[in-house]
Amino acid sequence: MAGLNAPFDRGAVRRHRDRAARRIGPVVPLLAELAGRLVERLDDVTRRFPTALDLGGRGVVAPLLAARGIGVVSADLSGPMLTRSPPPRVVADAEALPFGPAAFDLVVASLSLHWINDLPGALIQLRRALRPGGLFLASLPVLGTLDTLRTALTEAEAALRGGAAPRVSPFPDLRDCAGLLQRAGFALPVADVEEVTLSYASPLALLAELRAAGEANALTSRDRRIPPRALFAAAAAALAGPDGRAAARLRLAVLTGWAPN
Question: What residue ranges define each of the domains in the chain, with the CATH number in brackets?
Answer without folding.
Answer: 10-258 (3.40.50.150)
